[in-house]
Design goal:
Layout lengths: L5 H13 L25 E6 L9 H10 L4 E4 L10 H8 L10 E2 L13 H7 L11 E5 L2 E5 L14 H12 L5 E4 L18 H9 L4 E4 L5 E4 L15 E5 L17 E5 L4 E7 L3 E8 L7 E6 L2
Parallel strand pairs: 1-2, 2-3, 5-6, 6-7, 7-9
Antiparallel strand pairs: 1-11, 4-5, 8-9, 8-10, 11-12, 12-13
Helix pairs in contact: 5-6
């Protein structure tokens, strides 16, 4: 019999009562399916993806239809309107599909969004939901969780440890009394994708999050899905305090694959399915589920206790 802490036992009992018959990640192997029925008091839901609106692809139409069936707060993970984030591209390539969920969307800015006027059309399109114009970072609370959004286009904004953005991140986490936190930005620190390398410029973000015991990081940029085991900022597996990173660049703007060298802490990968990640947020743990486009067979589900 494993020696489990009282908190972990409570999470397992809660999960069992919900029908989630899974071992807590990050134990090896895929976790069991998430239940279809919601409990009487429904938890908060975050659902979304990155790399979305392309007039050259119908993937965003497919993923928008998934959002139609999933309630909750929609997140984007950057590169919302290809190829240059112009006002016209937001109207023609994003608005017809994901735009119908605009009223419940909290976006992330990506490098393609910043190609025009350093993101001017992005801020104009999303308005107050995107935070202060010209910054790209903001936070909000959802179901008792702290949600932190950052700007990782580090060739146009400062991402160093002593930057305005990093100082804001520290202050926001220091002031938060939330037990669980999820952070999101566009460029991943860890990635097995072939098209875009891992971006070490965002390591200061990851270091601050790790120091504050944050649970989850969501990224896009590589047009695929990849889930990692909880890690330190140096890429070492850390079951107790590590931050779990997801890449969800599957919003519709094309797909690309993985290189020969797979990250040692990569636990799930797919490069041929458009889809969205659904995070169900409970007070002490979270459940994840990748929801693929109709006809796809790939999924990835599991749950993890908060630190």
């Amino acid at each position: 019999m494993l020696n489990r802490s009282p908190r972990l036992r409570r999470v397992l009992l809660t999960a069992a009562s919900l029908g989630v018959l899974a071992l807590l990640a990050p134990q090896p192997g895929a976790a069991a399916p998430v239940p279809r029925d919601e409990p009487a008091t429904a938890p908060a839901v975050l659902v979304g993806a990155g790399d979305i609106g392309s007039c050259q692809s119908d993937g965003d139409e497919a993923t928008a239809k998934l959002l139609d069936r999933i309630p909750g707060t929609v997140f984007t993970l950057g590169d919302n309107a290809y190829v240059a984030g112009t006002a016209d591209q937001f109207q023609r390539c994003y608005e017809p599909y994901w735009g119908r969920h605009k009223d419940r969307t909290r976006p992330v800015i990506g490098n393609h969004d910043m190609r025009t006027d350093e993101g001017g059309p992005y801020y104009d399109y999303f308005g107050d939901s995107a935070g202060k114009k010209g910054k790209g970072w903001y936070s909000y609370e959802l179901g008792g969780w702290q949600v932190v959004v950052l700007n990782s286009t580090c060739d146009l904004v400062d991402c160093e440890q002593d930057s305005e953005q990093a100082e804001w991140l520290r202050e926001t986490l220091d002031a938060s009394d939330a037990k669980c936190t999820v952070a999101m930005w566009h460029h991943p620190l860890f990635s097995s994708g072939w098209k875009h390398d891992a971006d070490p410029r965002v390591k200061p973000f990851f270091e601050i999050l790790y120091e504050h015991g944050v649970e989850v990081v969501l990224n896009g940029h590589n047009h695929n899905y990849e889930r990692f085991a909880p890690q330190t900022p140096d890429g070492e597996f850390d079951r107790e305090r590590g931050v779990r990173q997801f890449i969800v660049g599957t919003g519709g703007g094309g797909l690309n694959g993985f290189g020969k060298d797979v990250d040692p802490n990569s636990r799930a990968r797919n490069a041929d399915t458009f889809g969205v990640l659904k995070l169900t947020l409970y007070p002490d743990f979270y459940v994840w589920k990748f929801v693929g486009q109709p006809g796809s067979s790939f999924t990835d589900t599991g749950l993890t206790a908060c630190h």
